[in-house]
Design goal:
α2 packs parallel to α8 (about 155-180) and α6 (about 80-110) packs antiparallel against α9 (about 220-250). The protein has two domains: about 1-185 and about 225-255, Growth Hormone, Chain: A (Up-down Bundle); about 185-220, no CATH class. About 25% of the residues are buried. The chain has helices at about 1-15, 15-30, 35-45, 50-55, 60-70, 80-110, 120-150, 155-180, 220-250; strands spanning about 185-190, 215-220. With about 260 residues, the chain is mainly alpha-helical. It has a two-stranded antiparallel sheet with strand order 1-2. The longest helix is centred in the middle third of the chain and has 32 residues, at about 120-150. It starts with a helix and ends in a 9-residue tail after the last helix. The model has no long low-confidence stretch (mean pLDDT about 90). Its main location: membrane.
Length: about 260
């Protein structure tokens, strides 16, 4: 009986108009960062950055993760402020994606991993840190807003429901991004020193390049295409949802609670 009552309350919560708007926002707000969040690490490794180098940044990211709430926490005291932080950090996250994009372009321009200059390693560390800080700020602001609107009478169940929507909204864009990545990447089979003067016309780089006797060269990287599309989506999202997000921040506690 109690379990059925609990699920009935959750269903009633999802029928609240502000909650439906919040769910729509949560399911779309991460789309502008999908390729940056989901594929950047893969591309860094693909272009020659050691996994060990990326792993070595983990302690720095842990420290940043601890400092960010301390710095941003005092500012986020009301629902309106929490949502305003979520909004102003969106361009910051898109800028972090741009820094990653520039970093990848510079890495591709270096012939081999052994030739990476010191400043490029510093840029990789900066890009990773910048991205982590922007992501942490938005996450903390989101959690603060959830805590402010949750009904204490239902305990942590309300927070769990909102976190579930938030997690789903974070994961589905990355899944779609990774699924489309190879489809949006174009490679050409070109002659290499070992292939000699072979006629490579009609040869493809499908199946991991096994059908190409020469060298598979990427002519269009799906990451670059997706980054441009995601950035456009980000600006469109801000135009469409900015006003509604600020409206949700002005609602009283009663608007988020069932009778």
């Amino acid at each position: 009986g109690e379990v059925r009552k609990l699920y009935g309350e959750l269903w009633s919560i999802t029928k609240l108009k502000p909650i439906r708007w919040l769910v729509l926002i949560l399911f779309t707000i991460k789309v502008p960062f999908a390729v940056t969040d989901g594929a950047t690490s893969l591309k860094l490794v693909e272009y020659g950055v050691n996994k060990e180098e990326l792993a070595a940044l983990a302690p720095l990211l842990v420290v940043l993760g601890l400092l960010t709430p301390i710095i941003i926490g005092p500012y986020i005291k009301t629902g309106k402020r929490s949502l305003s932080v979520i909004l102003w950090v969106m361009p910051l996250r898109m800028l972090a994606g741009l820094v990653y994009q520039v970093t990848l372009v510079l890495i591709r321009s270096v012939p081999s991993r052994s030739e990476f200059p010191a400043w490029l390693h510093i840029l990789i560390a900066f890009a990773t840190s910048f991205h982590a800080i922007a992501m942490n700020i938005q996450f903390i602001a989101c959690m603060c807003f959830f805590a402010q609107i949750s009904d204490p009478a239902i305990g942590g169940t309300y927070m769990t429901l909102l976190n579930t929507f938030n997690n789903l909204g974070s994961k589905w864009p990355i899944s779609v991004c990774l699924w489309l990545l190879d489809m949006m990447t174009t490679k050409e089979c070109r002659a290499s020193a070992d292939s000699g003067a072979l006629n490579l016309a009609g040869m493809t780089c499908d199946a991991g390049g096994e059908a190409c006797p020469g060298t598979c060269v990427t002519t269009v990287d799906g990451y670059d295409t997706q980054f441009m599309l995601c950035t456009v989506v980000g600006f469109v999202w801000l135009i469409l949802f900015r006003k509604k997000v600020m409206e949700l921040g002005t609602l009283g506690q009663s608007a988020w609670r069932i009778q």
